[in-house]
Amino acid sequence: MSSAMNAVLFLLxxxxxxxxxxxxxxxxxxxxxxxxxxxxxxxxxxxPVVIPGNITIGVKGSVHHNFGKDVRMVVHMDxxxxxxxxxxxxxxxxxxxxxxxxxxxxxxxxxxxxxPPQLEAHGLPCTCPFNPSDINLPPSVxxxxxxxxxxxxxxxxxxxxxxxMIHGHDIVGCFHVEMDIKRTGGHGFIFG
Length: 192
Description:
- The structure is a single chain.
- The protein is mostly beta strands.
- Helix content is about 15%, strand content about 40%.
- The protein has helices spanning about 5-15, 100-105, 105-110, 115-120, and strands spanning about 25, 35-45, 50, 55-65, 70-80, 85, 100, 135-145, 155-165, 170-185.
- Strand 5 and strand 6 form a beta hairpin.
- The radius of gyration is 16 Å and the shape is globular.
């Protein structure tokens, strides 16, 4: 599996993995007149999520506007260390990163000619452009086999992550989550 595909799945697991204290919210500012994406429901099990292992993820929301290369993504990631939130630097496209063209990040799916079967089974796209549609992913199992060694240092602990989709100067999509991640074993992981 390609490095970009691994990164997409790793970020997905971070955005929705948790202990019982898992919290999430759609964080599109109320001043955004025309949001591109909004989320209404997210479910995750088991709780806590342990990697490697299976994660069951359900998501509901809406894509309200066509978008593709015209947006950029800004991800803010903090890890709770020694009693304070500490910024996680961008390393191998994971952490507090800016993606000028998130469609490029998803190009691994276009190159392989297929989306993850969990998305395909429910008619959900995984490549750009995205068109207005409902997002309805019933609880679906994603297997996390391993994680890239470059990311293993980050794969355990308490995190808060905010991903902002930006068009021009406006935040047109936003997802915020706080959670704990636990991992087993001492080696790097790769998603499969």
